[in-house]
Amino acid sequence: MIPNAPEIGKLLFIICFWICAIFLPVWLVSWAVGVLLPMLLEQGSPSMAMTATAETLRALTPIISVMVFIPINAMFMVLYERRALALFTVRLGPNRVGPDGLLQTAADAVKLLFKEDITPRGADAFMFTLAPIIFFAPSIFGALPLLAAITNNHSLYQITNLPTGIFYILAAASLPVVALVMAGWSSNNKYSLVGGLRAAAQAISYEIPLVLSLVTVCLMAGSLDVVKIAQQQDGGILNWNIAGGGALRGLDKAIQTKLGVETTPLITPQQSSDPTETPVAAPTTFEEVIHQYYPFEFLSYISAGVLIFCSFILLGLYLTGACAEINRIPFDLPEAESELVSGYNTEYSGIKFAIFFLAEFTNLFIVSSIATVMFLGGGDNPIPQWLLNKMPLEPIQKSLGAILSPFINGLHLIDPDTFWAAFWVIFKVYTFVFIAILIRGTLPRFRIDQLMDFGWKRLVPLSLIAFLVVVFARVLVVCHG
Amino acid sequence: MGSNLIGRAFESFKRIGEGLRTVLMHSFREPITKTYPDTVSQIAPHFRGRLALSVNPDTGEHLCISCRQCERVCPDKCIEITAHKSPETNKLELIDFKIDHGLCMFCGLCTEVCPTTCIINTNDFEMADYTRESLVYDLRRLTLTQEESAFYFEAKDMPKPKPKPPKPAPGAAPAAGAAPAGAKAAPVGAKAAPAEGAKPAAAAADAAKPAESAKPAAAPAEAAKPAAAPLEATKPAEDAKPAEAAAKPQDSSTEPAKTVGDTTAKPEEKPTASPEVKEAEKEKAPEQGADADKKEG
Ligand code: SF4
Ligand code: SF4
Fold this sequence. Notes:
The complex is a heterodimer of chains A (481) and B (297). By secondary structure, chain A is mostly helical. Chain A has helices at 5-44, 48-88, 104-114, 125-141, 144-150, 165-173, 176-186, 190-221, 226-232, 249-259, 286-293, 297-325, 337-340, 350-375, 385-390, 394-410, 416-442, 448-476. With 297 residues, chain B is mostly helical. Chain B has a domain at 51-155: Alpha-Beta Plaits (2-Layer Sandwich), CATH 3.30.70. The chains are: A mainly alpha (481), B mainly alpha (297). Bound molecules: iron/sulfur cluster (2 copies). One iron/sulfur cluster binds next to helix 3 of chain B.
């Protein structure tokens, strides 16, 4: 039926294998550091020092799990990208190392680590060494607040939760540009310098629509806290920010009331009890609920539509800005291979180049997870609660629970809330990555003047307009926040 | 202007969407990549791969007449022919034929000038080797078997050479000039059986083209080579090679003339500019006589 079914199957197999290879170690390491070791320490000798060590270990869990995650993830993403691009360009892609090319990027990574680390003559050695580090560091510490959001505020990761999470993430995300300019300048290579300067110009231009689109989302959510934003969107696809920032929440509630479903959590966790949303007298009929959430009847419906339209525009703006921010095609001017012989990293080799590479793909993952948290409801199940209750999931749940209960209750190996949240986050994030790859396979590179025109003359005004529209439209509908 | 802008924005979104859909749909097409060592793709017969010397597919006699056209025309000077005049028959006899495939750029010029379609490009492209020296192919490695020759004559749609008559009539010489052209024009005659080679005059005019004397019981091409070996002593005298380097540019301009020219009278006709070559050929000329046949030792 599909002539390419074997290749697609192989890609799916690679994805499944590598996702297991990424998240099993992350899971086990964070469990060992965050749960098992402290548990053993505290049981062994409940002294002051032991407790302190245990607490320290718990506090270190997020960073350790991120450190385990980043290299394996970068390996997977490179392979994922190469294989998916091969599908799009009617090729086979790497298929020699390991079964179906499964280990290609692992071999590449080993090769890169063993390569000679060259510092070109005339280069500023200190800057030259510092640049990859500055490039890489933000992708670690910038990602930390997201951890709390995507693990559904797991107790181990709560330490990474900041009240101004998204602000902090954006601040961290704008740091790598400095590193790119440094790398370009210190390489003592004109191509690299041009690449670095292009990176600076591009990042300055595209950060504005990027930040404005996220600010608009925060406006709809009424919070800068990523965990709160993620939790607001719980309860199915109608609650997500992509659906008008909660503009369809009334519809969701109304359907629930109509079906008479009590909102017991099945897979998704309990709805956060927001004081503003609970009415004085609980409405009982479909119309009442609708009226409560859309108080101005027709005007409210229109503004809900406008909000939904705007959130799609915001998502588009965010993805465009993010693409430019992490220098991916079609905005890969700083490393334009055909013009600048890969720009700022021309002179890099060996482990420094590997770090640039690592950070690039980690950044791709991070912007995808920001999009997931801000627009697609974080770890939320896309299927609405009332639909889930109709499905015959109860027996499966029960039997799974019976099998897994020793792990859940005894060893604390599985946290059901976090488990499903993580599952959905992984799914959504890699879907965004897939879209990024698809865009890379489709669109050609911008010219630098087109890039600037597009940024300043199109995206910035568009994001300002979307911001204004959302400000007014959200008054007419009961949104999140 | 504003509406124009919005219209254009939607237009471009539509275009981008189309592009994305097209690219996504490509992932359902079968990959065109061949996993090379596992599956080798079918190479067109006119692919210009490794050079080889063909033999008459019917009789197995070597087609090279040692005319050195290929050696002269080669821009890379990678062909080296060693031939000598057989004292018994006064004909050129091939001793060795070397092609340095490390130098060759597979331009195919040599195959075009060859009057007997002896030297051909094969489909073989897997010539990787460990040393540069092993890229120099000698006569043994260059000569194709009868079956391979048959395949290439068939695949390249070349007229099959006629087997050589054992004793062509001396008068056939002028008429033999039509050999390459005539062979092309009359491929029907190309399938002449070995026995037919014995036919005099008329047949011989066409058949003068194949370089080697017709042996009705065709010896394999390999057998021809050792046979030439004992006569190697005369090789230095015959070796006009150094001169040819100088003669090459002029030769390329004379190619068209040669293809319709007389193979047997070639040495005399060739307007080579180089005195050395001329001299070497002059010296050959009287002995050469009217026929291009070469005696097999
Ligand atoms: S193909 Fe060209 S380069 Fe190679 S031997 Fe023939 S004439 Fe010379
Ligand atoms: S017959 Fe062909 S292969 Fe032999 S020397 Fe002449 S041109 Fe070269």
